[in-house]
Design a protein that fits this description.
Layout (H helix, E strand, L loop, with lengths): L1 H25 L20 H16 L14 H22 L3 H19 L4 E2 L6 E2 L3 H22 L5 H23 L8 H20 L8 H20 L17 H9 L1 H16 L12 H7 L4 H21 L5 H26 L2 H5 L4
Antiparallel strand pairs: 1-2
InterPro entries: Glycosyl_transferase_4, PNAcMuramoyl-5peptid_Trfase_CS
Main location: membrane
Membrane topology: Multi-pass membrane protein
């Protein structure tokens, strides 16, 4: 049933994105081309509406479908998440068309995150070793949840700089997250194996799969802030749901690291976006600029600067996401010391591959012919 909802989201997202392309091009709803942009012709940024259509239709369909409809029984969380998603899509579309000031967009992000935290899902447990820390205060829980969602939305928004990058990262990371959540619930002794986190990640993956053909290089439409922030909100919400299941014993394994698996995987999936976000904040703050001011210093820009082509840079980011996401997934299945060794070896190989164009430029022959 999860795969059926994924397929539903993909079909609707593909068709709706096609419609958004036609509307955006016919009405010439383009944003001005900025110095940091990688395209040279006007392209519509309404792709987030297509992704949202896939999410909306799949979630409503799931509420009346066999097996997964149990998720909605006496549970307002899915509708709270959908309400927050609606708010952030409206904020994103406004920003894509009007280029909102950074503080106005931050207020909109906070509003959407608070909607999710109040009426959707919220953090109740912070994973620690050996015992998780239980959040007793409701206000603290709401603030922490909203903060996590806003951070994740901005992280995804920051990596949306190359054709197909954000959508592909969401597909790869969401697939790893989906497999983990699904495997945990299928192997657990439960009467009801339906799970909101599994459903959300399935829908996110499906919607991005439907969108990606329109966004692959050379892109015909961008997801814009509406799409990137929507993906971040849904991924963060799924992470909050899985984190709340720590005390249930679902993630207990003798050969794994049980207490941190629910929080490890979302951060492994989002490691590249979060790393890019942190580096951008430090870089811009050090220059005396606002952390939300735009520049051309993101990770994908650096890959282009050292010699990678547009497609090669995107594929390289995909490979890093695979290592981090599925490397995190492996901790829930295989002995941790074996997984750690394999992950470190894969990361070391990828580090050399990533830096190879730069190392080749700085090789002995290059340096010998360069004046001091």
């Amino acid at each position: 049933m999860y795969l059926l909802m994924m397929l539903t989201a993909a079909i609707v997202s593909y068709a709706a994105t096609w419609g958004a392309r036609l509307v955006g091009n016919k009405l010439e709803l383009y944003s001005p081309i900025r110095s940091r942009d990688m395209h040279s012709r006007p392209i519509s940024r309404l792709g987030g509406l297509g992704i949202f259509a896939g999410v909306l239709v799949a979630l409503v369909t799931a509420s009346t479908s066999f097996f997964v409809k149990d998720i909605f029984r006496n549970n307002t969380a899915p509708w709270g998440i959908l309400a927050g998603a609606t708010v952030i899509v409206l904020v994103g579309v406004a920003d894509d068309l009007l280029d909102l000031r950074w503080w106005v967009k931050l207020i909109g992000q906070s509003a959407a995150a608070l909607v999710v935290a109040i009426w959707g899902v919220r953090m109740t447990i912070i994973p620690f070793i050996p015992e998780p820390f239980v959040i007793q205060n409701e206000a603290v829980s709401i603030v922490l949840t909203a903060g996590l969602i806003v951070t994740t939305m901005n992280a995804f928004n920051f990596i949306d700089g190359l054709d197909g990058l954000a959508a592909g990262v969401a597909i790869i990371g969401g697939a790893a997250f989906f497999l983990t959540a699904y495997w945990v619930h299928r192997t657990a002794v439960l009467l009801d194996r339906s799970d909101l986190a599994t459903l959300l990640t399935a829908i996110v993956v499906g919607s991005c799969v439907g969108f990606l053909p329109h966004n692959w290089f050379p892109s015909k439409i961008f997801m814009g802030d509406s799409g990137a922030m929507l993906i971040g909100l849904l991924m963060a919400s799924a992470g909050v749901v899985s984190t709340g299941q720590i005390s249930s014993g679902l993630y207990d394994r003798a050969n794994g690291i049980p207490t941190i698996i629910p929080i490890l995987l979302p951060f492994a999936v989002l490691f590249l976006p979060l790393l890019d976000l942190c580096l951008a904040v430090v870089r811009r703050t050090a220059l005396g600029r606002s952390p939300w001011s735009a520049d051309r210093g993101h990770l994908h820009h650096k890959l282009l600067d050292i010699g990678y082509s547009h497609r090669s840079a995107v594929v390289l980011m995909y490979l890093w996401t695979c290592i981090l996401a599925f490397g995190g997934l492996a901790f829930a299945i295989f002995p941790w010391h074996i997984v750690l060794a394999v992950d470190l070896a894969a990361a070391a190989i990828m580090a050399v591959v990533t830096a190879w164009p730069y190392l080749r430029q700085r090789g002995p022959g290059q340096i010998a012919g360069t004046p001091e």
